[in-house]
Amino acid sequence: MRTKYQLNVFENEKEKGGTISEIVFKHGTQKNILIEPLSSMILLKEGNNYNRYYESECKNPEIMIEEKETIVLTSCGTYTRKNGQRTNIKYTTTYHYKDYGLVSITLELNFLNPVKNIISLSILKFSVCGSLNTAGYIPYAQSGFHPSSFEKVIWKEFVQTPYYNNALLMEKFRPAYFCIIQRRVEGIEIFSPDIIEDNSFFNNKENTGFYQARYQDIKNIVEIEFSPYGEWQLPVSMKKGKYLFSYFLGLPFSKGENVVHRPYFHASIDSRWPNEKQLDILAKSGVKLIRLHNDYREDGPFWHDGCYPPYDKENMKKMDWVIEQVHKRGMKIVPYFSLKELHPDAPEYKKSGRIWKRTIDRKYSMIHNYAGTGEFGAQMCLCSGWKEFRKKSIDTVLKKHSFDGVYYDWVASLHCNNPAHYNGKQHTDIEQLIDLIFWTRKRVGPNGIVFLHLSGVPVMVIENTADIVYTHEDLPWLAPYPGDFSPESDFAGITGHQITTCNLCTDSEKEKFFTLSCFLEGLWVCPRNISDNDPVIKEMKKFSQYDLTSYQFQPASEKPVHITSTNIYASLYWKKDSALIYVANLSNQKTSGNLHANFTLKNWTSTTQVRIKSPYLMEKTDAFTVGKLFYRN
Questions:
Q1: CB of 494 within 8 A of CB of 255?
Q2: Are 332 and 290 in contact (CB under 8 A)?
Q3: What backbone torsions phi and psi does residue 299 show, to the nearest 5 degrees?
Q4: HSE-CB for 263 with a 13 A CA cutoff
Q5: Distance CA 456, CA 458 (A)
Q6: CA atoms within 13 A of residue 498's CA, in its CB half-sphere
Q7: Residues 447/521, Cβ–Cβ less than 8 Å
């Protein structure tokens, strides 16, 4: 079955066991990223030989397709070797193609007779082209891994150098999350359900899984293998019967490598309500969106997580007045909601907090996120009544006030061992989180704003629903140069990314550096103050006269413009007949140099008349001169 699955082309190929053998992204490279199909595999020791039997080698599977609101494809066949030899182990794989790039996959193995000497059982084994060279994963909370108050992705960039350690080893346990991407272009992700019970199938043996992603520089491919069992020195026997495994596949709604995503500028307010003059400053600087972020204030009223109404009558009137004034100036506004925190002042905390809480230790202790002399709230798990309460509380706010959507914090799937959830089994809440996010996208409608904070925990199918993504908070002391931002900062080209302010930005020089570095990469920053003198607002104003979404974009890290000075960086916006070159000096000294732009890269010729506008950035670039433009046919 070859189908256009939302923004992508997808193929389940009958000649390859019904497996997924082709994934092509419309706005990506437009090439199949799969070198080998997504197939399960069983490695058996038969006499003195080690033989691999693949789902993808079955040439005559039975295929059933059910099309309603979504597509469900089921493939039934027999594990087969590449030489055509078959075994008596059957498989039934069901692919459920859901909304927003989500594919739910279940694999049922049917051992018609007991099978001895299983060396490896892979529920997923495939390879992708080497252009997908950045991978990340989050471990699952099992033996050898101790969950914390927050877990984040561990990244690895594969390097095309022989003898370099190009393995991303995920030890012996199935990861909670795995992704591999070509940054800003395309990728694929695999994540586990709320509960993983793979080890229970293998005579209760533990520490026998094998999970890895490895770059093969000779072939220029990345091989990925998810094996609940994989031990060369310890073959296992499987009893007659059926064994069920499940996982999720996610595909990015990439808009293209050079797209400028909308909306791009935003600012934050709290219960220090802005006046009309401040709102005018924001509107004139090009701000399109206001975030009401008031989850804690040491010196004034704040919106306690899970409480409504958030303020007294006077402040509720002020909040509605601000919403009205924001709309009057052509901007939108969204309120803050935490998906994990419930404040002890909320009535539901005393009523249900002990049942809803997220726990990670043997005492099932409540986890509080403290701030100042108070707290943001206690952590809750979405695998409880907390999810439905959070939906109703969000719906109440959107019904009673003219907000334009939502801003979500703590958009993360976290481990939990609360005995009130899943009968006390170790679990995450990824399935519940996705359900809540998908509900949100439908609740705010196609014109509403979904603004998600995904620092350290990117998920493609979640980001597919978002208009803006906030990131970088997990790297509070990092002020990177262009090209040194974390892979999650631009991820797979899905939507616009905002960068949380670095803690070093309390120093004015560091704040200027950080602001310029972010803008050079097309990663926008939120101003710290509503003032004409704020460095972020100064930069925003330089772009306010342009409709950036009518341009294409190339970040400074890709060097679209050559500059003879070392600490000068430039990014490029271009369209049919004009270009905007954004130039910044990231050194502490005044400097000058020549700029050379090769516009043949943008399909222009030497006869094309092109307008060049190069705004000076702050005081640092006063001495910079734009030199001769370089054209080639």
A1: yes
A2: yes
A3: -120, 25
A4: 23
A5: 6
A6: 26
A7: no
Q: Identify the pLDDT of residue 232.
A: 85
User: Under a CB-based contact definition with an 8 Å cutoff, are residues 105 and 127 in contact?
Assistant: no
> What sign results for the dihedral spanned by CA atoms 387, 392, 395, 397?
negative
Q: Which amino acid is at 458?
A: P
437: part of which helix (H) or strand (E)?
helix 430-444
303: tokens are 């919106």
Nearest Cα to Cα of residue 470 among 483, 484, 458 = 458
What is the Rg, in whole angstroms, of the alpha carbon atoms belonging to the chain? 26
**Secondary element (H or E) of residue 518:** helix 508-520
The continuous run of DSSP H or E covering 350 comes out as helix 347-356
Place of tokens 């990340």: 136
Q: How many C-alpha atoms does 200 have within 13 Å on its Cβ side?
A: 8
Q: What gap in Å lies between CA 323 and CA 345, rounded to an integer?
A: 26
Pairing of strands 568-574, 578-585: antiparallel
DSSP secondary-structure letter at 153?
P
- State how far the Cα of 460 lies from the Cα of 253, in Å rounded to an integer: 8
Q: Which residues of the chain have pLDDT under 70?
A: 1-8, 142-147, 149, 162-165, 169, 199, 203-207, 593, 597-633
Q: Alpha-carbon dihedral of residues 487, 491, 495, 497, nearest 10 degrees? A: -10
Rounded Cα–Cα distance for residues 311 and 319 (Å): 9
Residue that the structure tokens 């950080």 belong to: 514
Q: Which two tokens stand for residue 77?
A: 């066949």
Strand partners of residue 158: none
Cα distances (angstroms) measured from residue 198 to each of 143, 145, 193, 246: 13, 17, 11, 10
Question: CB–CB of 34/127 below 8 Å?
Answer: yes
Structure token digits, residue 471: 């990131």
Tokens 């073959």 appear where? 235
Inter-residue long-range contacts of 398-402, CB under 8 Å, 24+ positions, other chains counted = 398/443, 398/444, 401/319, 401/320, 401/323, 401/335, 402/320, 402/323, 402/324, 402/327
Burial class of residue 168, CB neighbours in 10 A (0-12, 13-18, 19+): buried
- Kindly tell me the burial class for residue 555, based on how many C-beta atoms sit within 10 Å of its own C-beta (0-12, 13-18, 19 or more): buried
pLDDT given at position 205 = 57
- Asked if 276 and 530 touch (Cβ cutoff 8 Å), the reply is no
- Report the first-to-last Cα separation within the chain, whole angstroms: 44
Q: How long is the chain? A: 633
Amino acid at 451: F
Neighbours of 228 (CB within 10 A): 25
Look up residue 627 and give its amino acid. Answer: G
Q: Which residues contact 553 (CB under 8 A, 6 or more apart)?
A: 258, 259, 260, 522, 571, 572, 573
- Alpha-carbon distances of 10 from 181, 209, 222, 250, 279, rounded to whole Å: 17, 29, 20, 12, 47
- H/E stretch holding 444 reads helix 430-444
**438: phi then psi, degrees, rounded to nearest 5:** -65, -40
Strands 62-67 and 210-216, by their bridges, are: unpaired
Sign of the Cα pseudo-torsion (349, 352, 358, 360, in order): positive
**What is the number of alpha carbons within 13 Å of residue 220 lying toward its C-beta?**
5
Query: What gap in Å lies between CA 605 and CA 287, rounded to an integer?
Result: 35
146 CB-near residues (< 8 Å, 6+ apart): none
Tokens coding 596: 């050379």
